[in-house]
Amino acid sequence: MSKDLNGGIPTDNEVILGILNNSESVLKRLYIAYFPMILQLIINNSGNEDDAKDIYQEAIIVLYNKVKTGDFELSSNLKTYIYSVCRRLWLKRLTQMNRYGGDIKDFQDYLSVDDETEKNNERDIQFNKMGAALQLLGEPCKTIIEDFYINNRSMQEICEDFGYTNADNAKTQKYKCLQRLKKLFFQQK
Amino acid sequence: MIDNQLSEAIERYLNDEMSKDERARFEKLRNENADINKQVIEHKHFTNLIKQYGERLELERRLNAIHDEIDVHTLKEELMIHPSWIVQLWRHHHSKISVAASIAIFAVLCTMFATGYLNNRENNYAKLSGAVIQIQKQTKDLDNKMKTLTPKKGVDKPGNFRGTGFAISTNGYIVTDYHVIKDADSIHVQSVDGKAYHAELIYAEPGADIAVLQIKDPAFKSFGAIPYAFKKSETDIGENVFTIGYPRDAIVLGPGFLTASTGFKGDTMQYQVSTPVDFGNSGGPLLDNKGNIIGIINARETHIEGAAFAVKSNYLLKTIQDIPDSLKGTLVINSKNTLAGLGRVQQIKKLQPYVFMVKVY
């Protein structure tokens, strides 16, 4: 990696523009800039580095989605925002594990960020269900669905990859797969 | 396979792959058929979810890739709040340290006990014997110095013994302690206003430590009416009493209580009182609240702070009765008390002229 790509802490505006433009380098600089802060928070409050990774990535995804959907308003600086989200998420995790002693060692100022993490939580549940449904779907359905709906490949290409004799067969197969996926998805509680 | 075709149509519609006519027809169908409309919305929602799920996976993959480039282990070492090395040492080895410390303390105590360090009597004894030797040396030095001193001849001393006395009759009779005037060459009494008269011993009762003096001085005329009387009966413990006398050049009041009906070593002739007295108080009057003479101060207990003794007044009266008539002359004991009912200040004022400093040469 060149020095430029890692070039220090990006400004808050850089981060927002970078996310909107799917900039890999900005995402990387953002990630590298604030990870130590969160690692410090977690490991000094009865967590380990894997917890820190989970929490931090969750917070980055919250930020990412908010920026992408356009409802991100930067009321304080980004550093405080990320710290606050991580702090909130970690407190929740600690409470779930019954390890929260009512006292958390803080290293930064923080804001109250309850509702945002809640919203993210609902999406996570949906995604978990989708992931489980796809696993249950099995091959070749999983690949066909992923190729078509996620990777935006055409039916023609999929048809060739899987050796279907014609596109109609492939379409019929894809239709059946989608119906099964729906069934698996909605069956889950 | 109508469902299949419908699904394909919905997909093409959503992906904007239809021709203009086809699209118009499909929209019309959608508007007319609520079921199809619902299917369109559901399909759109579901496929969006799949897409977003895919995006999420992609994002997580990217984040993981970035994460893998970070040297988390080094960072962790840097960011962990490390307690100071002594705290760490304690955390890791506290049981071992505790055991070692206990053993060390035990060993020290054992050693101290075995070597007799804890038994420090000998040391003190050594110090004491050292002190005794020093004192012996000092005493010897003093003795040597004393031998070299030549005794000085007594120069005109202003009175080598002093006590207190008080009038018992208007015509110059004064009572004091026998021990005050014992072995006296000459006796002088001095009144509060500074007048001094020559006095002579008339009668003494050494057993009761009482002496009666008479002023034999041409300058003396009469005391005037004596304000106090002499109490014949015994006074009870707890009575408020006071004494007045000359422990120094000025007249001094000593207030207190009668604390025992017997004196030194159970002497029934005496009271014990808790008034501050000094040597010059000897022979001074002890009065009760009403101003009756109840005793004569004669000694103090050296071991008990504030404990003094006084000869009871009835022994004084007895002594006076015992004076032979030839010596008694016109000694008339006053029996009229004019102090009762007065405040202490007034009592003292009236009393003062009848209390004398007794100087013995």
Structure, described:
The complex is a heterodimer of chains A (about 190) and B (about 350). Helices cover about 70% and strands about 0% of the residues of chain A. Chain A is mainly alpha-helical and about 190 residues long. Chain A has 2 domains: about 10-110, Rna Polymerase Sigma Factor, Chain: A (Orthogonal Bundle), CATH 1.10.1740; about 125-185, Arc Repressor Mutant, subunit A (Orthogonal Bundle). The longest helix of chain A is centred in the middle third of the chain and has 24 residues, at about 115-135. Chain A is elongated, with a radius of gyration of 21 Å. With about 350 residues, chain B is α+β, with helices and mostly antiparallel strands. Chain B has helices at about 1-15, 20-30, 35-70, 70-80, 85-115, 120-150, 180, 315-320, 325-330, 345-350, and strands spanning about 160-165, 175, 185-190, 195-205, 210-215, 240-245, 250-260, 270-275, 285-290, 295-300, 310, 355-360. In chain B, helix 1 (about 1-15) packs across helix 3 and helix 2 (about 20-30) packs across helix 3. Chain B has 10 helices and 12 strands. The longest helix of chain B is centred in the N-terminal third of the chain and has 36 residues, at about 35-70. The interface between A and B is medium-sized, with 37 and 33 residues.
Spell out the blueprint of helices and strands.
The complex is a heterodimer of chains A (about 190) and B (about 350).
Chain A: H1 12-20, H2 24-43, H3 49-69, H4 78-96, H5 114-137, H6 141-150, H7 155-162, H8 167-187
Helix pairs in contact in A: 1-2, 2-3, 2-4, 3-4, 5-8, 6-8, 7-8
Chain B: H1 2-14, H2 20-32, H3 34-69, H4 72-79, H5 85-114, H6 121-148, E1 161-167, E2 173-177, H7 178-181, E3 187-190, E4 196-205, E5 210-215, E6 240-245, E7 252-260, E8 270-273, E9 285-288, E10 293-300, E11 308-312, H8 313-322, H9 325-328, H10 344-351, E12 355-360
